[in-house]
Amino acid sequence: MIVMGIESSCDETGVGIVRRLPDGTCELLADEVASSVDQHARFGGVVPEIASRAHLEAIVPAMRRALAAAGIDKPDALAVTIGPGLAGALLVGVAAAKAYAAAWDIPFYALNHLGGHVAVDTLEHGPMPPCVALLVSGGHTHLLQVADLAQPLVELGSTVDDAAGEAFDKVARLLGLGYPGGPVLDAIAVDGDPSAIPFPRGMTSARDPRYDFSFSGLKTAVARYVEAAQRENRELPIPDIAASFQEAVADVLTMKAIRAAQDVGVDTIVLGGGATANSRIRSLAEERSAAAGLTLRVPKPRLCTDNGVMIATLGAHVIAGGAQPSEFTVATDPGLSVATSQL
Ligand code: ATP
Ligand code: MG
Ligand code: FE
Predict the structure, then answer these.
(1) Which of 110, 139, 153, 225 could form a disulfide with 343 if both were Cys (CB 3.0 to 4.6 A apart)?
(2) 128 and 314 in contact (C-beta within 8 Å)?
(3) So where does substrate get bound (predicted)?
(4) pLDDT at position 92
C-alpha cells in the first residue's frame, strides 16, 4: 500500500509518499516541500493570502516531483490535511487531493494536521507505544495523550495565548533580529547566559491548570526589559536575553511534558512541530526525560516542520486501522479540534 500525503495548512506546500510495510512501519519514498517563508519575512509573520497564492503555484509541481522521486505513476491512496490551519491555504491542498483522487480513482482521507506531527515519528523510530506528545510550532502548543495513532488524540493542555514558536518570532522581531525568529534566537543564545535574566515561567503556579501554557506574559517581560535598558541607555545584552528567554520557554514546555507523562502513566514522550528544532528544548527534554526514566522520541528537524510525509504516514496508520475513505463533499475545517482525527 503506497500513500501520498498532501499538506498545505500554513506556509509549507508538502507532498510526501510512503509505503506501508507488512510489519506496520512505513518506508519513505518521497518528501517534497516548497516553503513560502521568505515571502513572509518582511511582514514578520505568515500572511494568509501570500501563503495561499504560493500553495497554488507550488502544489502541482511538488506532486509531480514526488511521483518521480518515488518512481510511481500514482499512489494507492491519498491523504490530506483538512485542518486545523489557514482557511485559504488548506483549500488548495484539499482541492488538489480531491481532484487527483477522483482522476486516479483512489480513496481519499481528510486528516488532522496535529496527528501527522505525532505519526511521522514512526518513520524513524518504529511502532509507537501509548505516549504523551508535545507539539510546538508557530501556530500550535499542545500536550496530547496518544493511545493509538488511528484514534483521535486526547488534548491534555494547550496555550491560552501565543504559541511557543510565535513567542520566538515576536521576541526576535522586537530585538530586530528578523523572521522566523526561532533559528536566529537559538544561534545567538549559544553565547548568552541562560540564568542572566529571570524571565517569568507562565502558568506554573499551583493554581494554574496543570498542562496549559502561556507565553504572552514572557514576551511582554522581554519587551519591558528592552524598554528599561533603552531608557537607561544601557547596551542590550542580546545573547543573554536570547538565552534567558529560550531557557524560560524550554523550562515550562519540558516540565509540563514530563509531569503529563508521569500523571498519565506512560513511559514515552514524543516531540513534534517546527519549534522542537530548538537546541535547548531538545537538550532539556533529553536531560529531564532521562532523569525521570522516560524514553524521548524526537523526529529529525526536517520531519518536525510541516511536510507531506507526516500526512502520508498518518494516512497509512489510519487506513491500516480500518478507516473508511472520506466523502468528496468534506469541507476544510480551519479550527478542527484535536479530538477529530478524520473528517
Ligand atoms: P504549524 O503551526 O501549522 O505547524 P508553522 O509554519 O508555524 O505551522 P513550523 O513550520 O512547524 O510551523 O515551524 C515554524 C516555527 O518554528 C516558527 O515559529 C519558528 O520560529 C519556529 N522555530 C524554527 N526553528 C526554531 C528553533 N531552532 N528554535 C525555536 N523555534 C524555532
Ligand atoms: Mg512553517
Ligand atoms: Fe504543523
Answers:
(1) 110
(2) no
(3) 135-139, 169, 182, 186, 278
(4) 98
Q: pLDDT for 290-316, tens place per residue?
A: 999 999 999 998 999 999 999 999 999
Ligand 1 neighbour 32 (Cβ under 6 A): no
Ligand 1 within 6 A of 140 CB? yes
Taking alpha carbons only, the member of 121, 132, 139 closest to residue 256 is 132
- Ligand-binding annotation for 322, yes or no, is no
Interval 5-31: pLDDT, tens:
999 999 999 999 999 998 888 999 999
Residue 114 assigned to a binding site:
no
Question: Any residues with CB less than 8 A from the CB of 267 and at least 6 apart, and which?
Answer: 129, 261, 293, 294, 295
**Domain 131-298 sits in which CATH superfamily?**
ATPase, nucleotide binding domain (3.30.420.40)
Question: How far apart, in Å, are the Cα atoms of 271 and each of 71, 274, 277, 278, 303?
Answer: 31, 10, 10, 11, 11
Q: Which three cell numbers stand for residue 340?
A: 477529530
Q: Where are the domains of the chain?
A: 2-124+303-321, 131-298
Contact between 96 and 77 (Cβ < 8 Å): no
The grid coordinates listed for 175 are: 530585538
Nearest to 16, CA basis, from 65, 85, 88, 86: 65
Question: Residues 46, 49, 51, CA angle at the centre, nearest 5°?
Answer: 55
Span from the CA of 278 to the centroid of ligand 1 (angstroms): 9
pTM value is 0.94
- The ipTM is 0.95
pLDDT digits (tens, 9 = 90+) for 148-165: 998 899 999 999 999 999
Please check whether the two domains, 2-124+303-321 and 131-298, share a CATH topology.
Answer: yes
